[in-house]
Every structure is written in structure tokens, then in C-alpha cells.
């Protein structure tokens, strides 16, 4: 498979402290699978400049796209925009198009767009804005790094506008076979099937529910015929 | 705060593909907060040797503890144990104590502990086993890297046994003030409060529900009096 690749950086003290359970990563993973972009890595980092800059620079050279969520609001702990600018070595400031987007929120933008609120219109030089249909404060794409909000409904709305503009790959198809056996009982034959069908990816995901062990065997490929054929081979081996 | 620090590595194609929503990370984050270990970073990587080895080596020198979840079963895609051994530069093989743990699952271990099943008793040299009260196949601590199962109920049971053995810090306390205002309307004063109380950590987490904006302001510290005092200051500023 030669689909575009992607990584995500979640900026979130609230996730690392266990206060909030992440949902943006799960949403992004599902959406990228639908359009054929392979999400290969996720990093969750604290609201710390060195960590964010380090993650942006490590990942942007390695993957086709990097998506970030969180830290672009107006408060003292919102440092993502500055970190992206620092990672790219460009300056950052309030930009007219971002200010105009933000101004839609106010009846009298000239007086109501205070210095604090204008923090949300600061954009690293050379960026392209990402539309925010909900609260107007825009995200931005700097090179291949797409900086978006952390509030899930806003993240999802920004992504919906952004994704069609990115070069997509072939949709990754999958089929799941649920086998009510322990992995140790099927591992040898499954390994042989995986080796013989290495053009597909076969994952085994064990589960334990109500005292019973089992595993979900997932066949993935961009080729529908191959997914169906390998899933049928797995069914014949373990459910036959 | 000088609590022990931690990172987590989630090994999981199924999470990156969006098939499964992670729960181990959220569970670990909550448990570490309770015992006063600061979770500072999480990486989610694919079932890929270079990625896993790279993450283990990047994080184990940086944090007091590294916790991993996933990839220690018997199937072809379970490569975590080998990757940890490679990261530490030690050999790996079936060990008697791990074999004895696994043997509890079988009436006739001598015939039933096949080569495939014994893959689950392979442990990097120098490791200490982590008890698995559910399915017996053990996890293991190699230096400061704690390798555990991906199945949530088993991960949680392993962690419950492991955590009391680790040096804990002071429990991180928090108090949340819910303010039904946009961040832009409170950011300036909140920034002043944060600056004046820099011995505590103050986070602002915006939300958007049913057309209404608001933010949760979270004060964190190991000192209960300071948490209460700063939360009271925030309440006076925005709810008074």
C-alpha cells in the first residue's frame, strides 16, 4: 500500500491527567481510514513548549500529514500556535484574514476584538487558514502540519472542511472474523495464513468478556477481493 | 512538584485504524494521578519493530517509568517482548517462572504447552514478572519499562498488582470551576491569576454543548490548601 501517511499530536494536560478521555484521536483515525490516509503514530504531549516543538519537528519530516488538536484558544495555556511557528522557524502574528474570521463573532469588532481575543487570530507566517464554522476562530495548515481545536465538535467540523483538500489514497477495507477461541489455540495456523497472504494485513485482537476469551481477526487491504478471499480462508480454518 | 514521571506506549494497529477506542491509556492516566505519578507523554505506535524499539529507547531514559500495553500474545503480530529485549540489548527466551505461570491454564502442561503457546512465556533477560490473575500469561518489568497486555481487563488487573510496588509520589489534587463564558472573555484575568499562583497548575478546557460555550478551569497541586485557595480566587473572579 502506498497511501499517504499521517501522525497526530494531541496537546492535552487534561487527557494525561485522566480528567478527560480523548475522542479526537479516535475520530481522526476513523475518518482517515475512510479516505485512505494511514494514521501511523499518535503522540499525546503536555502543554509544554519543548515537547510540542519536538513532536512537530519529529513527525512532520516523517509523515505526509501531521494533525494537531488542542491549545489554540486565548488562555495562558494555549501555546500551540507559537510552538508550530517555532518548529518551522517562522514568525507569528495577527493576520487580517484570521482577524476577519474572528470578527464574525462580534457586533462591534473594533471595540470587542480585544488584545486577548485577538490571540486567536495569531497564525504562523505562510499558513493557510482552516475554517471553523462553529466558533469562527480558525485553525491553520503550516506546510503539512494541520493545527486544529481541541473541543471535539470544533475539531470534527474543522476536519470535515480540511480532509477533501488533502490528497487521499485508496480506502482501506477490512473484514472481521470473530473466533471464540484463545489466541494460543489459533496462533500457529493464523501465522501460516498471514505469511501466505502478506499482501494483506492480518491483525489478531484478543478480548475477554464475562469470563470468555476470544479474538477478532481483522483482514485489511485496499483490494476488496483479497479482503474477502483471506477472510474466507480464516473462516474455513477456525469456524469450519 | 517532584513526583515520579511516566510515559506510556500503546502498541495498537487497531487503535490507529479507528477500529477500537483506547481505554488503557485513560485508565492508566487516572490510576497514576491517584498515586502521584505524573503521566507526561503517550505514544501510540503500530505493530512495527523499529517504531516500538525507538519509542521504548526514547522514553525510558526520559521518564521514571514507561508502561506499555499490547502485543504480548502468541500470534504473529505480537512482537512487543522481542522489541523490549532489543531496546535493552538483552536476549530473550522462555523462562521457568513464566512457563510455570502459564502452565496453570492447562491440565496437562507437558503436552498442551505447545511451542506457540510458550511464546507467551518468553521474557527479556533480567525482567521481573508482572502477575496476570486473569489469563496467567505474565507481563514483565525490564528495568523501568513495564510491559503489559492490551486486553483492558487484563491490563487493569496487571496494573493493580504492579502499582503498589512502584515508588509513588504525592497525590495530585484538583478542583474544577465551571464557567459558562467563552475563553476569550476570561483569558486576561485568568492569565493574571495563573501568573500570581504559579505554584499551582491552572488549565482552561473549553467546551461547546448544545450551542453554548463554556470552560472548565482546573486547578492542580499536591497541596490541598493551595488548590482550595486558588479555586476560590477563580470563583470570586468569574462567578462572583
Structure description:
- 2 copies of one chain form a homodimer.
- Chain A starts with a strand and ends with a helix.
- The longest helix of chain A is centred in the C-terminal third of the chain and has 15 residues, at 224-238.
- In chain A, 39% of the residues lie in helices and 26% in strands.
- The first copy, chain A, contains 10 helices and 11 strands.
- By secondary structure, chain A is α/β, with parallel strands linked by helices.
- The model of chain A has no long low-confidence stretch (mean pLDDT 94).
- Chain A has 2 domains: 5-165, 3-Layer(aba) Sandwich (Molybdenum Cofactor Biosythetic Enzyme, Chain A), CATH 3.40.980; 173-238, Alpha-Beta Plaits (2-Layer Sandwich), CATH 3.30.70.
- The first copy, chain A, has helices at 13-16, 24-35, 49-60, 80-88, 96-103, 109-112, 115-118, 152-162, 183-196, 224-238, and strands at 5-11, 38-45, 65-69, 92-94, 122-124, 128-130, 139-142, 145-148, 173-179, 201-209, 212-221.
- The radius of gyration of chain A is 22 Å and the shape is elongated.
- Chains A and B meet through helix 1, helix 2, strand 2, helix 7 and helix 9 of A and helix 1, helix 2, strand 2, helix 7 and helix 9 of B.
